[in-house]
Design a protein that fits this description.
The complex is a heterodimer. Chain A is an alpha/beta fold. Chain A contains 33 helices and 23 strands. In chain A, the strands form four sheets. Chain A has an eight-stranded parallel β-sheet with strand order 1-8-7-6-5-4-3-2. An eight-stranded parallel beta barrel of chain A has the order 11-12-13-14-15-16-17-18, surrounded by seven helices. Chain B has eight helices and seven strands, in the order H-H-E-E-E-H-E-H-H-H-H-E-E-E-H. Chain B is α+β, with helices and mostly antiparallel strands. Chain B is globular. At the A-B interface, helix 14, helix 27 and helix 29 of A face helix 2, helix 4, helix 5, helix 6 and strand 5 of B.
């Protein structure tokens, strides 16, 4: 018997119930490790499994829920001792009457970005469990009680890469219908089906009565069979038990057959009695599987973006033609990309394109850093944009959710390299209608390529809904007949192939005046031809206005709610050049001097005031004569206790806004005059980095380029960065006493590498004395002092 | 099982102190920032907690919980003198709080600092409420103030096992990193002694203050006065 056979049958499948509850009833004491029961109390485990088989369970979960090397560390036992013993017991109990699953629960540490566990480490931890179970003869794997979609992905990849076993994946949700980390059933369903799960489900946390909304959400977003293993009701507020009886449990579960749930079991608080009654309640029922259709959609763990209307892909995270972004990429300044991402989301982007390709940097490494960092600060689904398959694979591995891969084209080799990745990681993919011969002139030839891309994608098992076609925009100043061809191809792909369409819009106007005018009109024309996913700069008001107007006019934005929310009460410029002028005329600006604005920490006014000043004043004069003296004054007031940390930071923020404006207007001049860089890191093991981030803002204010390595940074990485950027100063922070030894190690390693750099340390628990003791050159008691140190070392 | 607890306000004075600004010296704009951040924070927090009563044995090297876990050191031992029972609990504001602060750090560091300090104050508020709730379960008993890993000589290394004892990863989504820091970050584990006999009144003092380690007053050799 195999899982597949059970799934094909029209009857419901019966799983087992709680193991922990049963072990406690047998006498497992508080503080004893339940995972060791197979070694220490094999008779108990055997009896429990047998009683579930007697009750009718068709799939047994071996007692391996927490049998990963991290959780077993304290027990002195290994995965290779615990898992085979546990699987063997379950198989003995089943005696061929039930399948045996490796039960795989969470590792017990949170993954990035909430925790510090690295994704690949998590994959490796699960892989060890899978290999041990496959060898011991497990029939399938049940990944369950997960609260983090990323951890589910790690576990699922580990199963796929280390065995041929079928796999069920189940998350645990709170009553609000989200996991503890805020992840939704919809995102879990889209992501995990894409990655090849065989069953998706819900277990633990809630009782059977709380299941229907979760099951309904899953049904909308997956075609896979659904499993449920609720607790024996909700926890009883008065004690440690649960609030419903075995009879109530069975009755409530049986109602779920109407929703098409295929697999039924129990979690905490359920016993063989619950399963036996459940079996009775389900007897004679057949599961009617109505065909489900899952619409085209992409997601992050929190947000599903269905492609059921125009969805804007923000194009700004791309270094092409952007000097500041190139500089940021060379320095490894991920924050710059995050700023671009957040700005586009605020402007109305639904999805962010991420391209970090620069010949002189390690694109794969940078892509991974940017993807992880973006997912730490925004819920936007991402479009991973690279020409290199190995970069795409790295990005797809760490991306949590269902991403878009940008792109393949009609060239066979490219498709062979990219489609397997799209399939393995469950992404959607953009197909460009070009091939080795270039971009075809005719609509028909583009259609032919689109068809070829679709057919090849289908042959790899990629869903039709996940293939998005880009009919390619040609610059109208170079090939004026091209725009009409593009629009016609778009219309035909949309209507004849029924595929979703993507189009980079901005190129259309290259080399012409009044570009926003052309872009806006071309976008509108493309949307009426069926464009679903325009790749645009959402910060351009005209472009978002076109999208919002389209939704209004096509009756997609019901009752004009979104349109009014965006524009109600605002004066909309109908002239494409009026934007800056209106802003300059805004009331309030210009009433205060820039130094007053910085001293008062008025971030909102600083940029505009600087912009006005630049009309009459040399940028360097603004920096040297206004900004730096203002910052110095605030710094001096901070030292003498006239102002406090919040004001210092607010002034720094205002100055930062001013610097941003200056940098935009004079990037070329900055070359050559730039100061030596400073490497900053929060040491290994420490995840509290707000102090370091405050220091970064201040240092940047004073014109020091900062190489920010982030938090929880390996000593080796600090040394590498100090060497690579020839930084004369390295700043290290630690907040907890427990991580001071990593600081000491990092300093020792820097010294060993014989680099010509000074080290400044700071952080809540440090003292000048301790700093000296661990070999630092300087101790900065606050952010202001780190600027003083930088001035002393670098000038 | 833990009854739901909601946080409806945070103490602005506390927040300002955590931010390194004596409340009496805070101007209107700073206060407005704190108020605004507190409001934003309270709209995203998802307070959750879990607890368990344990019997205690006082041993030479520390206090042993009924589960077998030893909480080593002399400070907790003297703190729990006279308590034969205790409640171990954990509390968290949830992962959304961390995400909010992370996001804000990219846009406005001053606001991020204020949010971070609001969150620290909110966790304390949460623990105060939990403590009251728990005290209600032991009528007629007396309680020394709650005590957490990292206070005195009680090492952070017990964090993982305390969480395990509370089934915290599964019940409330709270875990510890390899270096024993709690994640989500705005979280607490604590032990609340339960005594049948009256206890000497104790000042909570700096020992139990979440700003203790980074406190500018302490660094300058002083005290914030609360």
């Amino acid at each position: 018997m195999e899982l597949d056979t059970l799934l094909k049958n029209s009857s419901p499948i019966l799983l087992d119930g709680g193991m922990g509850t049963m072990l406690q009833a047998k006498g497992l004491k508080l503080g004893e490790y339940p995972e060791l029961a197979a070694l220490e109390h094999p008779d108990w485990v055997l009896e429990i499994h047998r009683s579930y088989v007697e009750a009718g369970s068709q799939i047994l979960c071996a007692n391996t829920f927490g049998a990963n090397r991290e959780k077993l560390r304290r027990t002195g036992k290994t995965v290779e001792e615990v898992i085979p013993a546990s699987i063997t017991l379950a198989k003995e109990a089943s005696a061929g009457r039930a399948l045996v699953a490796l039960d795989m629960g969470p590792i017990g540490q949170l993954l990035e970005p909430t925790g510090s566990l690295d994704f690949e480490t998590a994959v490796d931890i699960f892989a060890q469990e899978v290999r041990a179970a496959a060898k011991a003869g497990a029939d399938l794997v049940m990944i369950e009680t997960m609260t983090d979609l990323q951890e589910c992905r790690a576990a699922l990849l580990a199963v796929k890469e280390n065995s041929d076993l079928p796999v069920m994946v189940s998350l645990t949700y709170e009553e609000r219908g989200r996991t503890f980390l805020g992840h939704s059933p919809a995102a879990a369903a889209l992501t995990l089906e894409g990655m090849g799960a065989d069953v998706i489900g819900v277990n633990c946390s809630l009782g059977p009565k709380e299941m229907p909304p979760l099951v309904e959400e899953l049904r909308r977003w997956t075609t896979l069979p659904i499993s449920i293993k609720p607790n024996a009701g909700l926890p009883d507020p008065g004690g440690a038990g649960y609030d419903i009886t075995p009879e109530e449990f069975a009755a409530a579960m049986a109602e779920l057959t109407d929703l098409g749930v295929k697999l039924y079991g129990g979690c905490c608080g359920t016993t063989p009695e619950y399963i036996a009654l459940l079996k009775k309640a389900l007897e004679g029922r057949t599961i009617l599987e109505q065909p489900r259709h899952v619409p085209a959609a992409v997601c992050s763990p929190n947000t599903v973006v269905a492609i059921d209307r125009v969805r804007v892909i923000g194009e700004r995270i791309n270094p092409t033609g952007k000097k500041l972004m190139k500089e940021a990429l060379r320095r490894g300044d991920v924050d710059f990309m995050l700023g671009q991402g957040l700005e586009q989301m605020e402007a109305g982007a639904d999805i962010l394109d991420v391209n970090v390709g620069l010949p002189e940097i390690d694109e794969g490494e940078m892509m991974v850093r940017v993807v992880k960092a973006l997912q730490g600060v925004t819920d936007a689904p991402l479009q991973l944009d690279s020409t290199r398959p190995q970069v795409l694979e790295k990005a797809l591995r760490v991306y949590c959710g269902k991403a878009i891969v940008n792109s393949v084209n009609g060239d066979q080799e490219t498709m062979e390299a990219i489609f397997p990745l799209v399939k393995k990681y469950g992404a959607a993919v953009v197909g460009l209608t070009l091939d080795k011969k270039g971009i075809p002139k005719t609509t028909q030839a583009r259609m032919d390529i689109a068809r070829r891309i679709l057919d090849t994608a289908l042959s790899y098992g990629i869903r039709r809904e996940d293939v998005y076609i880009d009919c390619l925009t040609l610059t109208v100043s170079a090939e004026q007949e091209g725009a009409a061809q593009t629009l016609e191809a778009l219309r035909r792909v949309h209507s004849e192939l029924g595929l979703k369409t993507v189009l980079g819009v901005s190129n259309i106007s290259f080399g012409l005046p009044a570009r926003p005018l052309i872009n806006q009109n071309f976008l509108t024309m493309a949307m009426t031809c069926g464009l679903d996913l325009p790749i645009i700069n959402p910060n351009m008001g005209e472009m978002m206005a076109a999208v919002r107007s389209y939704h209004l006019l096509m009756n997609i934005d019901k009752e004009a709610r979104e349109f009014i929310a965006a524009y109600g009460g605002a004066t909309i410029s109908t002239s494409i050049t009026a934007g800056a002028g209106q802003q300059a005329a805004a009331p309030g600006a210009g009433e205060r001097s820039l130094s007053q604005i910085v001293e008062a920490g008025l971030r909102g006014e600083a940029g505009e005031c600087t912009r006005k000043l630049l009309e009459t004043t040399d940028p360097m004069a603004i920096v040297d004569d206004i900004l730096i003296p203002a910052l110095d004054k605030v710094g001096a007031d901070f030292e003498t206790g006239k102002v406090f940390l919040p004001q210092l930071i607010q002034s720094a923020g205002a100055a930062q806004a001013a610097f941003e404006v200056i940098r935009q207007t004079m990037p070329a001049q900055a070359e050559g005059t730039e100061k030596a860089p400073i490497v900053l890191a929060t040491v290994k093991g420490d995840i509290h980095d707000i102090g370091k981030n405050i220091v970064k803002v201040l240092l940047e204010n004073y014109g020091y380029p900062v190489i920010d390595l982030g938090k929880d940074v390996d000593p080796e990485e600090v040394v590498r960065a100090a060497e690579k950027y020839q930084a004369p100063l390295v700043g290290l922070s630690a907040l907890m006493t427990t991580t001071l030894h990593s600081m000491e190690q990092t300093i020792a390693l820097l010294r060993k590498a014989n680099l010509n750099c000074k080290v400044v340390v700071g952080g809540a628990v440090l003292t000048a004395e301790y700093a000296k003791q661990i070999g630092a050159d300087f101790y900065a008691k606050d952010a202001k002092q780190s600027v003083d140190v930088a001035r002393q070392v670098i000038g | 099982m833990a009854v739901p607890v909601t946080i409806s306000h945070v103490d602005a004075g506390e927040v300002l102190r955590y931010m390194g600004c004596p409340p009496e010296k805070a101007g209107g704009e700073l206060r407005a920032l704190v108020e605004d951040c507190a409001k934003e924070l309270l709209s995203v927090v998802r307070p959750r907690w879990s607890w368990r009563e344990v019997a205690l044995t006082h041993e030479a090297e520390g206090v042993r919980l009924e589960s077998g876990l030893l909480l080593p050191g002399t400070d907790l031992k003297s703190h729990l003198a006279g308590c034969r029972r205790a409640v171990v609990f954990c509390a968290t504001l949830g992962a959304e709080t961390d995400a909010l602060i992370r996001r804000c750090e990219q846009r406005d560091m001053g606001r991020a600092l204020a949010l971070d300090c609001c969150a620290s104050a909110a966790v304390e508020e949460l623990c105060d409420q939990i403590e009251l709730e728990l005290q209600g379960k032991f009528p007629g008993c007396f309680f020394p103030y709650r005590y957490s890993p990292g206070y005195g000589d009680l090492p952070l290394q017990v964090q993982g096992e305390l969480l395990e004892l509370l089934d915290a990863p599964r019940r409330v989504g709270l875990c510890a990193t390899e270096s024993c820091l709690l994640t989500p970050r705005k979280s607490v584990t604590a032990i609340l002694g339960v005594s049948e006999n009256k206890l000497e009144p104790m000042h909570r003092s700096c020992l139990g203050c979440p700003a203790r380690e980074g406190c500018q007053y302490r660094k300058a050799g002083g005290h914030c006065g609360t």
